[in-house]
Amino acid sequence: MTRDKPLDIKICGLKTEEAVDKAVSLGATHIGFIFFPKSPRNIEPTDAGRLADRVRGRVKIVAVTVNADNDELDEIVDQLSPDILQLHGSESPERVLNVKAVYGLPVMKAFSVREADDLKKIEPYIGIADRFLFDAKPPAGSELPGGNGVSFDWTLMHLLDDGVDYMLSGGLNKDNLAEAIRLTGAPGIDTSSGVESAPGVKDLGLIEAFFEAARKAEHETAVAGRGK
Ligand SMILES: O=C(O)c1ccccc1N[C@@H]1O[C@H](COP(=O)(O)O)[C@@H](O)[C@H]1O
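# LGQLAAA5 complex -> structure
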């Protein structure tokens, strides 16, 4: 498999200057802030805006929301000025269109995957969402639609049509990343709990190890592609 673009790497659920600086210095292409009160990664829009200002222009700033209404989005967009809105709830295609029209920002629409049919759910969003994000279904009893540290069967991604742009997420960490990239050839990867020492607590060493694993896997897929 060859890669025509460098791998996009998103580190999500950031709450501290140290973690933002570490992710960006290691070459994150995207950083994400979570606006979901039940999450241990939840952050106030003003705090996210202050953190984003440290690195604005060097990395894409992603606001992660879950079925947010326009009042919520107004505040997030005012305070954070994100580059991308990640809609991680059950937002309909009509709602995605409406959000894009109101805010004039690209939307990355998240889908949870367990089986092949889950991938078909993107069909009504094709040409509407700018990018997709595939995460695992939350475990029973979880209050979080994402950030659960759970993976899905990556071989399912072979069922996706070529040309669908997406980020792979769900339980990615330094130990499983190479296999995930090898099996999917994902154009982008996203992690949140996989670089934490406790829920909501980013670990700078784990962030570093995640990037090391990503660079190694990227190199290996490039070498494998050249051999074909
Ligand atoms: O991280 C959260 O707490 C969260 C809360 C609500 C919606 C999305 C959330 N995170 C997203 O979940 C995926 C996977 O996370 P993980 O690596 O399995 O912990 C990632 O896309 C985050 O953006």
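# post-check
Residues 204-226 form the longest helix (23 residues).
The beta strands are 8-12, 30-35, 60-65, 84-87, 107-113, 131-136, 166-168, 188-191, 196-198, 201-202.
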